[in-house]
Amino acid sequence: MITRAPVPPALTVPRGVRLGYGVGSVCTATFGTVPGLLLLFYMTNVLAVPAWIAGMVAFLPKVWDVVINPWVGQRSDRTVSRFGARRPWMLLGALTLPPAFAATFAGPPLTGLSAAAYVTVCYLLTATAYAFYEVPYKAMPAEMTGDYHERSAILQWKMVFVGLAILLSGAVAPMIAGTTASGYRLMGLVVAGVLLVSMLTAFFGTARAPVVIRAEAEPSLRAQFAAARTNRPFMLLLALSCAQMFAAGTLLAGAPYLATYTLGDSGATSTLLLCIVGPVLVTMPGWVALSRRYDKRGAMILASVLYTAGAVALVLTQEFGPVYAHACVLVIGVGYAGLQLLQFSMLSDVIAHDAAVTGRNRAGVFTGLWTAAETVVFAFGALVFGWLLGAAGFVESDAGALVEQPEAAVRAVLYGGTLIPAVVAAVSAVLTWHYRLNEEELRSAGA
After folding, report:
1. Could you count the other beta carbons within 10 Å of the beta carbon of residue 166?
2. CA-based nearest residue to 247, from 432, 56, 422
3. pLDDT at site 188
4. Are 101 and 188 in contact (CB under 8 A)?
5. For an engineered disulfide with 389, which of 149, 293, 382, 394 has Cβ 3.0 to 4.6 Å away?
6. Angle between helix 322-358 and 232-257 (nearest 10)
7. pLDDT at 180
8. pLDDT the model gives residue 423
9. Quick one: pLDDT at residue 247?
10. What parts of the sequence cross the membrane (predicted)?
11. pLDDT at res. 9
């Protein structure tokens, strides 16, 4: 039975630090949204890359995350500098990610396989640069405070900026990109500028961040994986998060296709994204309140159920039209807001619990593995969707061509972009039911 949690103590992390840390999430949200939303469509409908190959291009560079992210986590655990352990790596990411991102969407005069090869190389460099920033960035909340509810409150600030970033990037990036190579080139430059400002703000804004617990590094990548395997709460949280990320990756990759081939309006991509991320801005306090009343596990189950229900209902879009579709996506957005907040808050809990039980704080270990799995599985959603389109006979095109798609491909767009996310989100709800790390258990462990 889920019981009420006691009222949490007041926040102690300085407001300026919480604000600076929160602004840094503009980078993570923008980078997660724009490639997930536009990269597959960019390749199939602008660069004339076959759908199954485009799915591979979106996925394979993320496999590299399995190596680079844990390595960055290990190195940042060991780093000693006047900037602290995490911030030097964040600065390195700030200097390398924007140019790599802009190059990915530079739109060179290439199509087909040569264009796919170019995007693969650029996206691999982008994934590497992103790891430099994201892994240490996610490790910081667990080191700023040892309080169960304060971590949620810090992350509430983060999620406000996540909502703003996804709202702007999800709506504005498709409008800038349009359907031309020059539009995508301009979009890449604009987003690169946003990434740079966000990361530098986080670097300078967290200069006074408290370090309650200092992380310790594992001696090797093999030891990192061993540490993760023996931590049951982490493995269960990782599994349910991967299910949620796969659902989100599939849904996001399918959104431009749903707008173009189901709703018959490519411009609806922006409004669909507004419905997904708009609730982040207005429902976050509600999700924090629910997590305090019914604990984080109960709130996450509710969020998963809402996500699943909205995705299942979206199947009937052809029968009920665009307004109905946007209403369904709005329900998905409410659930998505809860999932985003609670995932990160529960990860901080797992790190704190591990430190209390083992006497070692391995924040970089867990965030490195977490970020690697998260990005790989998110990209796997695009891969599966791309393969589904390829199997259904989707016809690729360049920016100036209008191609009539076979009926099988149109059906694949609708069902692949709705039922696959719904089923996987339902699986995440089942996994969440078995997650048992709560405030009482953390307190008994001394966390």
Report:
1. 30
2. 422
3. 94
4. yes
5. 394
6. 160
7. 86
8. 94
9. 93
10. 21-43, 49-68, 89-107, 113-133, 154-177, 189-213, 234-259, 271-290, 299-317, 323-342, 363-389, 409-433
11. 45
Residues of the chain predicted below pLDDT 50: 1-11
**What pLDDT shows up at residue 325?**
93
Region of residue 232 (phi > 0: left; psi between -120 and 50: alpha; otherwise: beta): alpha
- Cα–Cα distance measured from residue 184 to residue 155, given in angstroms and rounded to the nearest whole number: 32
The whole-number pLDDT of residue 3 equals 41
